[in-house]
Amino acid sequence: MTENRAIPEGxxxxxxxxxxxxxxxxxxxxSPVRAPKLSIFNEKLAASLGLNVQALNSDDGAAVFAGNxxxxxxxxxxxxYAGHQFGHFTMLGDGRALLLGEQITPTDERMDIQLxxxxxxxxxxxxxxxxxxGPMLREYIISEAMHGLGIPTTRSLAVVTTGEPxxxxxxxxxxxxxxxxxxHLRVGTFEYASQWGKVxxxxxxxxxxxxxxxxxxxxxxxxxxxxxxxxxxxQAELIAQWMHAGFIHGVMNTDxxxxxxxTIDYGPCAFMDAxxxxxxxxxxxxxxxxxxxxxPYMAAWNLARLAExxxxxxxxxxxxxxxxxxxxxxxxxxxxxxxxxxxxxxKLGLFNEEEEDESLIEELLELMEKHSADYTNTFRTLTLGxxxxxxxxxxDEYAQWHERWQARRGRQEEPEASSHQLMRDSNPAVIPRxxxxxxxxxxxxxxxxxxxxxxxxxxxxxxxxxxPEQAEYAALPEPSACPYRTFCGT
Length: 490
Description:
The chain is α+β, with helices and mostly antiparallel strands. The chain has 15 helices and 13 strands. The radius of gyration is 23 Å and the shape is globular.
């Protein structure tokens, strides 16, 4: 790395969150680390943010991304929020993260720049405020894969090693992740305001959220009801996209549901292999609360908590406020189902709508579950049209379903070529397979070899390409007697 202190880094900070009531944050600087070293740097994302890639791909950049040097215009703070964690309400906050500020991009977007693993804060609750390299690289991989899939997500700008160990069950290399987000406003932020703030604080937060994320929407006669409606709408679309991709978040607590509609927190998440709605990867989700098939229901539950927090703003009469809130939350199920059906039709190359489409889709999913068919590869195979006479594809049940599906495609006006292209655009050829992610992390953390991770990221950047080099990344892992488990390391 070379010194580039003389070259402007391109930071263009504003700090609108810091202008909220003091209740919502604590000003604090990151804790410096011993020997920051840039492990991976997202040059394309940096350029889109208006940052100087050359200047930041340096020792100076590593110092910024580690928290050793505060860039000009930044005003570091830890955000306060609460949350229902596995159904239990608790006070939370940024226990190991600091918001540097909001980067104003060349296209006039406002993006949070947050350091994750930057040291203790008043909200650390006994934690050390640090992060290990493996989980930070994992968030980098999965968040960038989600971006490639076209699913709204926070992004990863950089990971630096700290030169200091962190102590978990064993001693691990420490790291700091730089996360980029439309904002870090959460359902839990509103729960916190409702529980510990005054109505004026809650109103200030709601006004801020509206202005930041929904200012172009129609506020109607009741801005706060419209705010709830817009969050419901975005979450209905987001959760449907998760389901289309076979993504399991793993920790859908209310502090991990954003107001912006972005996916956030890539701790115990993973992508499903064999289709099973009961699939759980998280080591701590022993009851299956956040299983794949439960995600739509848990999203509605979380949104109901947001609605409860907003009640004082919805109407002066509590009964009428509850009635208004219930109506908006009830709309989630229909919105989600509409988005889910539309996406599943696209995955099957269907442009128009027919009454029997849902049963056609459900029948395929039931066959996939019965035969433990891989979720992603089943749709990949349907897209390529080269199914082998084995497993699901070798059964009479599938042959009958396939005949129904082909007849259904034949009843639409669009030509077969258009239907095939719709399927290619809707069914990824690759996802971040759990075994591939683990191999990339092992090489990077244990051997300092980032080439495995870089190749994986290159393949995941355009998952709909159906390129020859993607074929090996679509291969399933070897059978294992041990189910794959993920942990809340991030």
